[in-house]
Structures are given as C-alpha cells and as structure tokens.
C-alpha cells in the first residue's frame, strides 16, 4: 500500500499579475484565463501528491463571484480534498488583490478531479490522503458527498443515452 500523504504536503499557491492580454477591452479578465490558472495550480497539487503525471478528468462547480481586472494580483490556492483509487478531488480558491489598495476579494471557487497516470498513460493508484485537521476532515466529507452526486449524475446521463424515456 502507498504511504499516506497529507493535504499540506501537496498544497499549491500560484500568483500572477493580470495583464492587458488577459482581459477584454473593458479591462475585465477572461474567465478562461482564470480557469487555466486554476487548472495549473490544481495540477501541481495532484502531481505533488502522487509524483506521477496527472490529467484533469473534470472541473466541477466553477463559480465566479466577482470579476478580476487588469493590474490585479490573481492568487489560486489548491489542495487535495479527497483521494480515490486512481483519482483525487482538488479544491481551488481564487482571490484577487488590488495592489494599490490592498483589498483582497474572493473571486471564484472550483473542484477538480485529476487522475494519476503511469508510464503507459493508464490510470495508476494514488497515495491515500492523511486527514490531520478538522478542516481536512470537513473538506474530505464534503468531497465524498460531491463524488456521490457526480457518479449519480453520470449514471443518469448514461441511462439517458441508452433510453431517452429516462431523460
């Protein structure tokens, strides 16, 4: 069995200034730019946890609460919430900081599922997650509930494709 690792072992923070090429003519940062930074931070957390190549399997519940603007510092914090046999759920929190005023704003949150791959590009096992804090336990419990919902929705979609009367 693989050695357990804690969320703190693989947590990742990425920060980047938003530039004109990241935004529309009104100076508002494109959602896709933010999505890419979320995927990058979550991907690093996944690789740190597994020390394997990891790929994005899904992005769940990416909710934007506020816009980001040219000149803002965008910070993405990503950490492992739950591990399965070959996959992991990673939570990401995005904040912006107006560097001139110091005001920080919670911009978005997302949950991503990553799968670890072996040299043959097939899924491989991931180390179990060691839950050290009450926060780790809460995040893991909520991730397990989201996984159950995702699998239920996936089953429903499959049934619908086979029999449209079930849609």
Q: What is the topological layout?
A:
Elements: E1 5-6, H1 7-10, E2 12-17, H2 31-50, E3 53-64, E4 73-83, E5 87-97, E6 104-117, E7 129-130, H3 134-162
Parallel strand pairs: 1-7
Antiparallel strand pairs: 2-4, 3-6, 4-5, 5-6
In percent terms, what proportion of residues is strand?
A: 25-35%
Tell me the name of the CATH homologous superfamily: Hotdog Thioesterase
From N to C, what is the helix and strand string? EHEHEEEEEH
Indicate the CATH topology: Thiol Ester Dehydrase, Chain A
How many strands, what sense, and barrel or not for the largest sheet?
A: 5 strands, antiparallel
What's the CATH architecture name? Roll
Q: Give the spatial strand order of the biggest sheet.
A: 2-4-5-6-3
Uncertain runs are: none
Shape: globular
Structural classification: alpha+beta
Helix content: 25-40%
CATH class value = Alpha Beta
How many DSSP-defined strands? 7
Separation, N- and C-terminal Cα atoms: 41 Å
Spell out the key features of this protein.
single chain; 167 residues; alpha+beta; Thiol Ester Dehydrase, Chain A; five-stranded antiparallel β-sheet; two-stranded parallel sheet; 3 helices
